Amino acid sequence: MSDGSLRNGREPDDDAADRSASSTVTSTETNPEPTAGPEASDFSGSDLVVGYPGLETPVIDCESVAVPPDAVTALIGPNGSGKSTLLKGLANKISPDDGTVLLDGRTIEEFGSKELARTLGLLSQENAVPSGVSVVDLVERGRYPHTGFFDSPDESDLAAVDEAIQLAGIDHLRDRDVDSLSGGQKQLVWIAMALAQETDVLLLDEPTTFLDPHHQLEVMEIVETLRDRGGITVVLVLHDINQAARYADHVVALKDGSVYARGDPGEVITRETLATVFEIDVDVVETQHGTQVIPLDPLHDDHPA
Amino acid sequence: MGRVLDRLAALRAAGTDWYATSKLALIVVGSVAVLLGSTILQVSFGAYPLTLGEAWQTVFDAEILFNPEIWRWTFLGADVPEWLTRQQVIVWNLRLPRILVGAIVGANLAVSGALFQIITRNELASPYILGVSDGAGLVVLLTLTTFYGLMPFLPIFAAVGGALAFLLVYAIAWKNGTSPVRLVLAGVVVGTVFGSVQRALFFFIDDLGVAMSAQAWLSGTLMNAGWEEVRIALPFTVLAMALAFAVTQELDVLLLGEDRADSLGMPVEKMRFAIAGIGVLSTAAAIAVAGLIGFVGLIVPHMVRNIVGSESKLLLAGCLFLGPALLVSADVGARLALSPVQLPVGVITGIVGGPYFLYLMRKKTNLGEL
Prior knowledge:
The complex is a heterodimer. Chain A is built from eleven helices and twelve strands. By secondary structure, chain A is α/β, with parallel strands linked by helices. In chain A, a hairpin with a 2-residue loop joins β4 and β5 (106-107). The longest helix of chain A is centred in the C-terminal third of the chain and has 17 residues, at 213-229. Chain A is globular. Chain A binds chain B through residues 1, 53, 91, 93, 112-118, 121-124, 126-128, 130-134, 136-137, 141-142, 144-145, 147, 149-150, 162, 175, 177, 194, 197, and chain B through 9, 12-13, 16, 121, 176, 246, 249-250, 252-253, 255-257, 259-260, 262-267, 271, 274, 305, 308-311, 370.
């Protein structure tokens, strides 16, 4: 519980500049071996087998995923393709049956629980909202991994909370009861809480699903800001292919628990790939707003495209 | 400019803090007032009646309050000082300890209720939800029917029985870890079986007096509360309260759900077990001296949460005051309502608690979720 020794572990916000320098090194087909060196927040999983207790066949079967540091990676794929499972496996929320996840050159099991939470943050789809708690108090709970057992929040915690609230654009809501917010606003609060955690790696599980267009754009704007500021590796599961095309530096397309394609958005988001992965017929057009994917028809087995 | 903004932010933060604290202050002041009122009523009425003024004077008599001999007697179990007048003996030896035990039990039930509601994330959880009451009840019945000679150890047996039942519930609920729902269901399983055995044991009681005391114990009563009970319960209570207030940060995080708590680096299973352990310790201290008093642990956290919100520090602090106020005032009713017949205080809390829940049911649409 008390973890005085852990607190001296890796503090986030080490040296963002170093990390951005290394981002160019990692190409789309990185090998999962960690590139030794302190500069980048290396994050990769190799030969992962992830399943749920009680299921006979694993959801993710022997996959390797290397996430380019200091960039935004989008996981796309149809329902049941294992996107969320892969994310949970990478975050060690489900222990992989086989394979290893490496974070900063160490296997993820080596991290203490609070130490891991200072390095890697995961925002799941479902979050419970306690009643009668203000936005700022809720965001402050994101500082939990940074506070020791008997500590109360100090200056640096409050500064991190303020920054997260600013970044999430919810300053006008800070004293509101979280109960009274809309679903979209709540999602922004959850993201602010994950930001207050000040991790090097941030995993977001379908952060835009169920949100109205305005709040979807708000969420993606936060992701864009994070990408521009650098110093953080973001992995997010997206259902909206257009969002992946627009905001991601790197796209991983999953089908039936394995990686079907990976690379720059331009390489992955193509008519052929999407036909196989999502079984849809699309038109990919270049517009003044970047690449746009226009879904046309579902493809059925009996008449392939 | 930045400085001005900082100042504004600080002021605003202080403002919200003050608002939350003022609501807590409302509970504290209200509870202390109710507690004082109940104390005076409880002290003055009875077979040896005092006027309200006399009651006040005897309770707040500086000569007694600050006398080391009195302290040795009450807290260390020395003999009753001989220089006390009859009136002082009645107040200090009979009526005051009952109030004190009531306050201790109320605080324990309310705080442990809040703890159990948080770990099961269920507003309808009570201190007895994880089998504690059924384990304790079974042991009490066993003692009364088969091991009557061991009666003096009844409080300790009851607490141990409750703790064992809690461990059994945990073992049943465990399957690759627990979950709030599994824990509650396991509590129901253990409760059903133990409850049946308990009722069966009633048929083996021949003596009406024993049956009555068993019944009084199961409904919870402060009738026999004296300084001995204060001495039994107080150390465990202080320990449990200190532990509960030490983990408020953990409680806040746990309230966000398992996934979120886990992502924030909390070992959820260990923490939940540890907090449940604190809750059981606290509940056991209450059961040991007062039996199974229902509803207090259920409604007090509820009332406090409605006023101060679910921030754990405020919630526990509110429970610490409102619990004693509610239980002690209910005990006034239990002792004086049908005088000279005394009712178990658990009967009164049930009679008051039921309608309060009915009111909640009507008022809130999604009662139960936390």
